[in-house]
Backbone:
């Protein structure tokens, strides 16, 4: 819980930093600095109630019964088993209060510009023999800082289609490596071949207008520098597939609501 | 001027391959079969990249055996053991074996096991490219046959039966060779299917609930899968034919021939079980190692048939430091 809170706080900080950068005073012509990534924030009490200035906010809700999490056999690694004394249960479809977590949301039809990746790296942590976050986005050439917070060994192995595959061993607790992808690509699977239940999904984006829903289904995409207009909204969930919608951005802000039938 | 045709010396009644070396040869054969099972487990459990470096594992010679590291590093440990045993056998035969071709076969075995280790490393470092992984699988089977050949060449039967039935042996040998070639080709097709992730491209056997032989969409993976499935019928026919031919022509090999026939039927059943159980790792690995055993058994049957039509040779396992009688 503490770690999750810290992660959320770091993302909020990153978003704040991004806001300060995303002004009209961008030094490089036709180059805009991404606000932040991934744009996951702490859930607002009612994020869809009113547009947030400079952001597209919203909630992805789930309609229907959430499947019960299934127990995962993690006994092959005593360190992992020790961190989950009550056992580890997984469900790809999860969320709280009717919200759907881990939906990657991106705007489509945004101005075709050359967006500059932020200097801040996105963190992908291996903690409790799970990936945190489970679904995330980065801009192309943006650093991904991969951390091993576990006292056991992991290998980090993304399997992209258009980017370069790599496989790196991270045997020690506290070990960090930094990687990036050069080309835009959807839903690159990151896996640990040691612990086969560990999976994460990474979207490599051309632009900065994307985010991932939190446990309550809420998301926030910084659009303070996005011209007003109607944009597409593309949503992806690892087991439910994809959906599309539209959103009208006015004054750099909009709200978006969508319900996913389970 | 007439050229004298070389004549083989009569079978010796003197020194033969020592029991220790015979046992060692068969132990290496057993270890190799277990190594193939361990290798199959690596693929069945998708553990091939759980150790990203080579030859060390996470920079260590002995990493914590957690998760899938148990299968990948365990495979490396068994492989190192087989490599060491092969090294010992290769030098052993150089020291005591009278037949030049066996001594050469010892070096071939050693070269094969070294090449196999290198292929294993390459496939890990280059993230399991299908051709390299297939070559790794194919060389494993070839190595098993070499080891089986060496082990058999050291038996008393090898010495005793040379030229025992020159009339019947050739046809039995030809039937055996055809069966061995078919099994080997089938193992290649299996490796292609396995490393192309086509093992469940046709997820039903023999037909779907609606009675179809093929899925609605026939793509490349379905074609690869069906090649392996379809050729299994050819293999079964050729192995059963070889078993019948050998059993009829060489009654002394009837038991061995029957075992080949039974094993090919068992292997087909195991293939069906692999599909029915959604590629459950242990069943899949047993299917792989049974394929290897079928190849080795058919190969040995072929060698035993060939031997009965071959000329005799001097077989001597001279004591170390003793005088070698070179063939």
Residues:
């Amino acid at each position: 819980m503490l770690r999750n809170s810290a992660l959320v706080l770091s993302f909020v900080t990153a978003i704040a930093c991004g806001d300060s950068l995303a002004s009209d005073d961008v030094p490089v012509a036709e180059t805009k600095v991404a606000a932040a990534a991934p744009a996951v924030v702490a859930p607002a009490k009612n994020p869809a109630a009113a547009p947030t200035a400079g952001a597209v906010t919203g909630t992805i809700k789930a309609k229907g019964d959430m499947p019960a999490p299934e127990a995962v056999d993690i006994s092959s690694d005593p360190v992992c088993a020790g961190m989950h004394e009550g056992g580890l249960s997984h469900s790809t479809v999860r969320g709280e209060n009717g919200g759907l977590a881990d939906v990657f949301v991106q705007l489509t039809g945004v101005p075709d510009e050359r967006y500059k990746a932020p200097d801040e790296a996105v963190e992908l942590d291996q903690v409790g023999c799970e990936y945190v976050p489970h679904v995330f986005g980065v801009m192309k050439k943006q650093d991904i800082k991969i951390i091993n917070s576990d006292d056991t060994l992991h290998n980090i192995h993304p399997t992209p289609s258009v980017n370069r595959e790599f496989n790196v061993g991270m045997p020690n607790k506290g070990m960090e490596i930094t990687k990036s992808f050069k080309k835009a690509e959807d839903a690159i699977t990151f896996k640990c071949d040691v612990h086969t239940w560990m999976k994460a999904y990474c979207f490599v984006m051309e632009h900065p207008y994307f985010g991932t829903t939190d446990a309550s289904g809420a998301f926030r995409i910084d659009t303070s520098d996005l011209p007003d207009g109607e944009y597409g909204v593309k949503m992806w969930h690892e087991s439910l597939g994809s959906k599309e919608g539209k959103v009208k951005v006015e004054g750099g802000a909009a709200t978006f609501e969508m319900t996913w039938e389970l | 001027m007439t050229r004298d045709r070389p004549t083989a010396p009569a079978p010796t009644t003197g020194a033969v391959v020592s029991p220790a070396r015979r046992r060692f040869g068969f132990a290496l054969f057993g270890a190799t079969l277990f190594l193939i099972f361990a290798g199959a487990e690596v693929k069945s459990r998708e553990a091939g990249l759980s150790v990203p470096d080579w030859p060390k594992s996470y920079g260590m010679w002995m990493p914590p055996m957690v998760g899938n590291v148990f299968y990948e590093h365990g495979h490396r440990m068994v492989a190192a053991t087989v490599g060491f045993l092969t090294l010992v056998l290769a030098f052993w035969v150089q020291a005591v074996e009278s037949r030049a071709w066996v001594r050469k076969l010892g070096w071939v075995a050693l070269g094969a096991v070294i090449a196999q280790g290198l292929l294993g490393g390459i496939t890990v470092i280059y993230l399991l490219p299908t051709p390299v992984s297939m070559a790794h699988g194919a060389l494993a089977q070839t190595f098993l046959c070499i080891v089986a050949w060496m082990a058999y060449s050291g038996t008393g039967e090898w010495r005793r039966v040379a030229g025992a039935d020159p009339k019947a042996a050739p046809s039995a040998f030809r039937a055996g060779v055809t069966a061995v070639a078919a099994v080997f080709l089938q193992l290649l097709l299996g490796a292609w299917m396995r490393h192309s992730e086509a093992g469940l491209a046709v997820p039903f056997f023999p037909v779907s609930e609606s009675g179809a032989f093929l899925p609605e969409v026939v793509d490349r993976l379905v074609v690869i899968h069906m090649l392996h499935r379809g050729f299994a019928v050819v293999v079964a026919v050729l192995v059963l034919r070889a078993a019948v031919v050998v059993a009829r022509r060489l009654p002394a090999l009837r038991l061995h021939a029957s075992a080949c026939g039974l094993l090919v039927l068992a292997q087909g059943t195991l293939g069906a079980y692999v599909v029915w159980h959604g590629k459950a790792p242990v069943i899949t690995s047993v299917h792989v190692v049974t394929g290897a055993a079928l190849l080795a058994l058919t190969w040995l049957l072929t060698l035993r048939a060939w031997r009965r039509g071959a000329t005799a040779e001097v077989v001597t396992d001279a004591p170390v430091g003793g005088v070698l009688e070179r063939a």
Q: What stands out?
A: Confidence is low (pLDDT under 50) at residues 1-49 of chain A. The domain at 51-261 of chain A is CATH 2.60.40.420 (Immunoglobulin-like). Chain A is about 10% helix and 40% strand.
